[in-house]
Amino acid sequence: MRGRVALVTGAGRGLGRAIASELSRHGARMVLTARTAREIRATARALERKGGQALAHPCDVRDSRQVAELLAASVARFRNLDILVNNAGVFRMAPLQKTDETMWDDILDTNLKGTYLVTRAALPQLERRKGQIVNILSTAARIVFPDNSAYCASKWGLLGFTNALRDELRPRGIRVSAVLPGAVDTPIWDEVPGHWERDTMLRPDAVARAVAHVCTQVGSASTDEILLTPARRA
After folding, report:
1. pLDDT tens digits, 137-149
2. Burial of residue 208, with CB atoms counted within 10 A of its CB: 0-12 exposed, 13-18 middle, 19 or more buried
3. Catalytic member of 91, 116, 151, 161
């Protein structure tokens, strides 16, 4: 992966930070984005201390103007873009009657619309480089969970988007992959009410290694989908 440029959304903490660290370890030059500037700058410093190269550029993926500025900053710094990892996401649990319009829009706009906006903006660079798109989904893209109607809707929609995009872009030399992890032990669970068996969840580095595997695949093969579940049950 040395010399290639990778953009990771939601890279400030948790799974996004782990993915950025793994791709940087493989030699990729990193473009890091999230809404919180302090977190992505901390991620960038951590990568640079290990010899990596990183650009931290804050962006709300729901905003097309900010997304355009992100891609412009990426090209200005590194000239090319080879890999896009759409990882930015919002997770909220609530029964439908307590899922107000603001919550619904936040989840759908971040998880689904944000992926569409960043992907569309990145396509000219990715096509020029015959690049790779990796969309981070969830097992919630294939099965449903109570009190998660908005989140499941966003992930089922994102899976449909990913599958359609793969067939659309395959003739143009762009690989499109979906990674569907089960529950991952990240700080997101600090904000979710209830008791969760976090010691049985996937670790972020396990998902990050799966993303790196997809991005380092060479030759005529393409990994369309990876489903990751915990090895140990609660």
Report:
1. 999 899 988 888 9
2. buried
3. 151
